[in-house]
Amino acid sequence: MLFAIKGMYTNPYTPSQVAQAKAKNTGKSFANFLKPLASAVWHKDINHNHPASHDALPFTGSTRACFNIMRDSLKTNLFTPSSFITHHSVLNPMNLFRIRTQSHGAIPTHTYHFEDNMRNLYGDRLCTRCTNNTLGCETHAILECTFSKHLVSPPINTLRTLLSKAGNPFWDFLPMQEQISIILGNPPLSLPTKLHKAWTKTTLNEILPHISFLEALMYT
Ligand SMILES: [Zn+2]
Fold it and tell me: SS3 string of 92-153?
């Protein structure tokens, strides 16, 4: 509406792509102009506040855990949905979406704990399913917990084979943060971008059913 007003097209601050767009498309055009700029600001914030070199540190909060899962899919324009969402599959990616976004009430670190009116620290939210006395986060539930990790073994075996066929580092040599990233739908760091689409197509149908089994187990 703003750019539909006669005379605005001569404003030197109006981006050329917006000025040249048809009146009905100016809003969309302006949004498309802003997205890469806003994404660059967010990237700067992420790189400043959550540098990759700190990834090996223990999780002190959900933000650290989130970047462990999402970092590799945050390198592109942040307004571009992850490929596990945009890939057309007959399987519903909602279970994966809930775990990736830490919107999962069955994982202890996602729930609020109150004792004597004091809120527990993130690091105090231990797994309630095994006896390892370990932080009950996604990484633990999927890769470590004796109660649930067996459910994700089949897709990990598939990923292990695919990695080796593609000439990538062996699964067992990857740091845990990259393992959790891959099992939750991100391509391996060493895989060229042009192969990412093919990777998603090949792996998502393997991953989704088992993440669904995992979620079903955790809710029982
Ligand atoms: Zn456990």
Answer: CCHHHHHHHCCCCCCCHHHCCCEECCEECCHHHCECCCCCCCCECCHHHHHHHCCCCHHHHH
Å from CA of 151 to ligand 1 middle: 13
Q: Measuring CA to CA, which residue among 7, 36, 40, 44 is closest to residue 23?
A: 7
Task: Give 21-65 pLDDT, tens digit per residue.
Answer: 888 988 899 999 999 999 999 888 887 887 765 556 677 788 888
Residue 179 CA, ligand 1 centroid: distance in Å: 18
- Cα 170 to ligand 1 centre (Å): 25
What's the gap in Å between 7 CA and the centre of ligand 1?
64
| Identity of the amino acid at 6 | K
Q: Model-level pTM?
A: 0.81
Q: Ligand 1 centre from 136 Cα, in Å? A: 6
List the domain boundaries for the chain: 1-49, 52-219
Beta bridge partners of 115: 118
CA dist 147 and 76 (Å) reads: 35
State the distance from the centre of ligand 1 to the C-alpha of 166, rounded, in angstroms. Answer: 32
